[in-house]
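Lecture notes, part 5. Sequence design as translation. It can be helpful to think of inverse folding as translation between two languages: the language of shapes and the language of residues. The source text, in structure tokens, appears below.
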């Protein structure tokens, strides 16, 4: 085997083993490759930033970028994988969360502005109407976090204007609730920065503590997130004395009937900070796991059927050369899925369609080469010379066709939305892989083995005399 063919063979072998190493253990598919919303199921939400009307494109882009930065921090801290956050223009943001089947959890994670406030509780009542007549000035009537079976707030609170806001926070941690009556529930402990610790102590010092005056309950401090009262504890006398003595309080507790997931979500939202503007959900849909599993079955079946039929056809029509094309096609498929894993790309249903299209395009490159080889063989050249000439004469046609396709695939990826991007990714990878397989793998097999002696045409005989 010539040095050039040996290098081609070793490079091909190295890439194949690298791809197989990335793909191990090969199945199930969702453990090997990132699956898109249409295959894995999950939630897609489009958010609209409020108050961007009339702003310049630069201002809108800045607001959108800041929103995405906060949301990325939230999904990372919450532990969600393969989440896609993408600006759509005009202050709109697309959020795709594969694998998440609970749209309410998604809304609470990404749709929460996270404006934290501390307010004094004036009065509470089971019905909002009972508090309207007592409202004064900047006071507001806010619902509690606890809801009844119908989803209505259990309690309504009449609260003062904000005494303190959440810009003083440094951390929020989830801990089991130490109260024996709340066994099995969790609380969120929020920590203040140095300035916040002093300001919180000042607020506590101004309020009446429970037990400070005989016969009086004392004041309650409502902890409010985005207009919802999550906790409204009474001011403890020991806490007030600590605030007056040390002039600082480093932390506070948000208690309630939170399970672990609810407390974790609340802590993540508080840690990641507030969004620069309010956002509203303008569209939302959820794909269930059964639909995703059915899409995987159908897509996999289409891929396998097309793959097997092409393998059979190439052997029937091109015989020994068809075997070369089949090996090149198998190598191409391995490289495509290996590249998807290596780059962390997401496979979608249109992406599977792109792979199916690639199967045809992959053998098409070999067909062009084989036809040139056959033409050379008809002129009476030796098999080895036919192979060399066939690759040389087909190179320009292959490059022209495949590079233009790659350009289109790149445009689809850059300008398209999720499914179109998935198609563009697999198409680009498939075309690049087909070029490599045809020009490197096929050539190494034809020039380095006896298969070159089985070109399925007979050389023309020289004319007599």
């Amino acid at each position: 085997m010539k040095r050039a063919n040996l290098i081609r063979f070793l490079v091909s072998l190295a890439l194949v083993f690298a791809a197989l190493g990335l793909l191990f253990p090969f199945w199930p598919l969702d453990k090997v490759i990132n699956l898109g919303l249409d295959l894995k199921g999950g939630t897609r939400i489009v958010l609209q930033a409020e108050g961007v009307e009339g702003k310049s494109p630069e201002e809108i882009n800045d607001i959108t970028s800041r929103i995405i930065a906060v949301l990325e921090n939230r999904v990372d801290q919450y532990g969600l994988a393969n989440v896609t956050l993408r600006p759509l223009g005009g202050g709109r943001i697309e959020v795709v969360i594969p694998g998440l089947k609970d749209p309410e959890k998604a809304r609470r994670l990404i749709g929460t502005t996270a404006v934290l406030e501390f307010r004094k509780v004036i009065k509470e009542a089971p019905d909002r109407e009972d508090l309207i007549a007592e409202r004064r000035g900047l006071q507001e009537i806010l619902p509690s976090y606890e809801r009844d079976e119908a989803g209505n707030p259990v309690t309504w609170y009449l609260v003062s204007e904000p005494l303190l806001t959440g810009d003083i926070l440094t951390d929020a941690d989830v801990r089991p609730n130490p109260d024996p009556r709340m066994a099995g529930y969790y609380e969120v402990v929020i920590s203040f920065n140095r300035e916040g610790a002093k300001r919180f102590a000042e607020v506590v010092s101004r309020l009446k503590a429970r037990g400070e005056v005989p016969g009086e309950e004392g004041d309650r401090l409502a902890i409010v997130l985005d207009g919802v009262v999550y906790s409204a504890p009474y001011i403890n006398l020991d806490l007030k004395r600590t605030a007056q003595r040390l002039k600082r309080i480093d932390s506070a507790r948000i208690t309630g009937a939170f399970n672990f997931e609810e407390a974790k979500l609340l802590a993540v939202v508080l840690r990641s900070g507030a969004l620069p503007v309010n956002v509203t959900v303008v569209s939302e849909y959820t794909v269930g796991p059964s639909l995703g599993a059915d899409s995987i079955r159908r897509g996999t079946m289409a891929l396998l059927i097309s793959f097997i039929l092409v393998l059979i056809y190439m052997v029937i029509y091109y015989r020994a050369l068809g075997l070369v094309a089949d090996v090149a096609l198998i190598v191409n498929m391995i490289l495509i899925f290996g590249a998807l894993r290596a780059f962390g790309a997401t496979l979608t249903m249109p992406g599977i369609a792109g792979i199916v299209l690639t199967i045809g395009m992959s053998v098409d490159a070999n067909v062009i080469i084989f036809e040139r080889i056959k033409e050379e063989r008809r002129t009476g050249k030796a098999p080895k010379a036919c192979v060399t000439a066939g690759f040389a004469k087909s190179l320009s046609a292959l490059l022209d066709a495949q590079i233009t396709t790659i350009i289109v695939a790149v445009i689809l990826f850059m300008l398209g939305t999720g499914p179109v991007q998935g198609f563009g990714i697999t198409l680009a990878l498939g075309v690049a892989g087909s070029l490599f397989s045809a020009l490197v793998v096929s050539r190494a097999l034809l020039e380095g083995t006896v298969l070159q002696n089985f070109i399925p045409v007979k050389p023309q005989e020289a004319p007599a005399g």
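The translated text above is only one of many valid answers, since several sequences can fold into similar shapes. The domain at 3-34+288-454 is CATH 1.20.1640.10 (Multidrug efflux transporter AcrB transmembrane fold).
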